[in-house]
Design a protein that fits this description.
Layout (H helix, E strand, L loop, with lengths): L1 E6 L5 H13 L5 E5 L6 H5 L13 E3 L7 E3 L5 H8 L1 E2 L5 E4 L10 H13 L7 E5 L5 H4 L8 E6 L3 H17 L4 E9 L2 H11 L3 E6 L2 H8 L4 H4 L4 H19 L1
Parallel strand pairs: 1-7, 1-8, 2-6, 2-7, 8-9, 9-10
Antiparallel strand pairs: 3-4, 5-6
The structure holds adenosine-5'-triphosphate and magnesium ion.
Adenosine-5'-triphosphate (ATP) binds next to helix 1, strand 9 and helix 8.
Length: 252
Amino acid sequence: MRIAFVGKGGAGKSTIAGTFARLLARRDRAVLALDSDPMPGLPYSLGVAVDDHPIPDDVVVPGPAGRPRWVLRPDLDAPTFVDRYAVRGPDGVLYLQFGNLWGHAVRLQQAQHAWSQVVEHLDQHQWHLVGDLPGGTRQAMAGWAKYADTVCLVVEPTVKSLHTAKRLLALSDATWAPANILLVVNKAGDDSDAKRISERLELSAAAVIPEDREVARADRRGAAPLDTVPDGPLCATVNDLVSQVECLYARN
Ligand SMILES: Nc1ncnc2c1ncn2[C@@H]1O[C@H](COP(=O)(O)OP(=O)(O)OP(=O)(O)O)[C@@H](O)[C@H]1O
Ligand SMILES: [Mg+2]
């Protein structure tokens, strides 16, 4: 499984991706959670003990004649890289963080080169990949989610979230055409929210997650849904989504 969660900022990507990764791991799958958001939210949703675990700069060396500018150190292939820099979290999920922006955007250039080279060479038979992208269209447009053949579009019932979703749909078509696009309506107030969003995007909803104040309350403490509201609607709906995605892969 190679799935990436995209959508507007604040729609719930990290909350859902983190819960999805853990619930998948509970089905005896080896799961690698890929966090390419330079303002990472995924560690909290996974319940990983560290939130600041960026790729160090010395994983790359200057490329031959500067093209590409940085290449992965010869002693680091993708599995060694994951082994060395990913952190193991609850339910055995491996968590790999691209970088953490503390005001030094330039420093992330090395991490960015390392990330793209590692992600391109991850063995999909070794791990199921669950990716969390930053909000908006920028990374998607630049091909950061190309490792994913399933894209989960997370939309909350706001006009802004819908606009971003429309652009992401157009982009994914134009740039990397994932095999599956799944719509997840999050923070739904009632059935009309999901209906409206589905109609506007011309996509039926694979999952509809209700607004749950307990989820938001736990998040204020930096706690993961599975550790705070495991029996709530969010975890139950995401578990159904895991089943759906497993069926998709079983069919293909
Ligand atoms: N179903 C829900 N009900 C209530 N609150 C929710 C729900 N899903 C997510 N939230 C809350 O919405 C906020 C944003 O969620 P989250 O950080 O997962 O969004 P995101 O899309 O990853 O945002 P960003 O683009 O900034 O990374 C958090 O406070 C989270 O707890
Ligand atoms: Mg996030």
